[in-house]
Amino acid sequence: MSSSHHEYNTFSDKEQLLPPDLSDVEVANADKKKSSKMVRNLSDFANVFKAFVGSGYTGMPYGFLKSGLLLGVLCIVIVAFITNHCCNMILACKRRVTTLLMEREKSTVETMNEVDYNKRVDEIEKNLSYGDIGHVAIGHVGTKLVNVFVLITQFGFCVLYFIFMGNITTTFFPMKYVTTWDGGNVSDQHQFELPVEQLSFVVRDLATNTTIHSISTTDYNMTTPSTLDTTIPVPHVPTVNSSTIDFWVRQSTAPFFGLLVLIPLPVLILTAFMRDLRHMGSVSILANMTLLSGFFIVVSYLATDIHADHMAAIYAAVGLANWKTFPVFFGQITGAFEGIGTVIPIESSMRENRHKFPPFLLVTLMLIAMILGSIGVLGCLVYGQHVNQIILKNLPPTSVLTIIVNALLFIGVLFTYPLQIFPVIEIVEEMLFLPGKIFGPSFAEMAFAEANNQTNTEEGKNLLSYVASTVNDNEDALKDDDNDEEEDNMVLPVAASIPQQVAAWKRNVLRAFLVVITAGLAIVFKDAFVYITAFTGAIGSAMLAYVLPCLFHLKLHKGTLSTRIIVKDIALMTFGIVGAVVSLTVVILELVDSFKVSPHNSDDPTYMN
Predict the structure, then answer these.
(1) Which of 64, 101, 119, 337 is disulfide-compatible with 376, CB 3.0–4.6 A?
(2) Residues 144-171: pLDDT tens digits?
(3) DSSP string over 370-423
(4) Model pTM?
(5) Is-contact 129 345, C-beta < 8 A?
């Protein structure tokens, strides 16, 4: 306390003692440095923020319907706090790995001056990845665990993006109204056999052809029909012998969902052919701007659509806590906060600003929590049990505001997809095309290439290093000596590129296939946006965000941690594992139930409960 107070006073004194006769050049330079520092801070904060922002907020109102209002808010706060802690923990692991690697280079380090030492530390930190930390912590298994869960998480997000784009595309098609004739007298209920977005009851006197009574389903606290035969309540009206009921159904004119998915498919396949995503930097900024713009528009619309007279009924229907379906929300919110995989490279890129990463991260997670919580609560209070899995489908389809926000979010998701599929492509290509793999060149072919001077490039040298390390690993596996296991973990795997011997068309076929698979799964699960989000969060995100950071922290700091820290890490691991298992179980059961519907329902482009 006293130290910081002294620093503050020193800073104030310096400001007060600045000479009043500074030249204009010096003042201009000082202003330029201040401006440059501000720009750098904003840029670094933007990089941290965009690692966590996404389109997941569009499913939050439905998530709150599953969790209950109070339980949903508490879950967001807890998950934000744990995410912040685990992100800082993985950065502590990174620093520990750097220290261990520098200790391994002790003989070289002793001859370094301070500048060279710091340069070497920066070089190591810049190139470290989540998988490298796992490798040093628990060996090859650590790298494989990280890759598997990254693969699941990113692949799941790509499926979600196709579901999102397909459903949003349906809103751009005009609606039509279909009339069905009951042919009977007024009754208290009617079995209606179509999935609908809006249903209007019109009671008419046939003798005079006049309307006696009319009412819409939006005036009722009803759940969108989720089965073939759904009982629709009809209000009591004055008895008229010649009266009957017309049912007016609003349906979309959009074609089959699979055709809608084909619209963005060619563009996304072409972007998947890119070998380097550095050209996507400006596109990434545009994507995040559109996603944020969409959020503010939706929230402003919801805030003006709250009606106090409906609030009590909706509040009672939604409830404070729905423990039975809460696990769906847990998986959903875990997926929405997933960004730990990008924390390491972002923090490394900040260089002299690294000390500001923790506060930037904390502010980011607070903002994300407010974004998710505000739209979740507002959407739930406005639409109650009518809320759709994608809140945008609740907005008036013909409204100019709705069209704008749908277009913005469609563009944002379209430009984000290539960034999400790229890690999937890298991991799968390494599984298939590296030397010794099923579709990769053999080690003999690589040796022949070396003999013919085909590997003089940096890429070739990395490949030869990879081959050598792989051969050595295979030889070591035949030995019965495990004394050097920890020493072997300190040797990071070489980041090898795909060999030139692998034809470009093979890689492009694989990339196109991966994109098509995500589109195909989106067609199958087109009505399960929130459930696929929860599924992805439960399997992949929970392991990456909660379990693995604690596991690596325990292994890397073994023997130096207090009992309190060990208990805390184990508790967080338990939280992640139990939460993931329970969430995954409930999500699977809900998905199975959602498929127990008529094929007629599954074909309707407007249907999504």
Answers:
(1) 64
(2) 999 999 999 999 999 999 999 999 998 8
(3) HHHHHHHHHHHHHHGGG--SSGGGGS-TT-HHHHHHHHHHHHHHHHHHHHHHHH
(4) 0.76
(5) yes
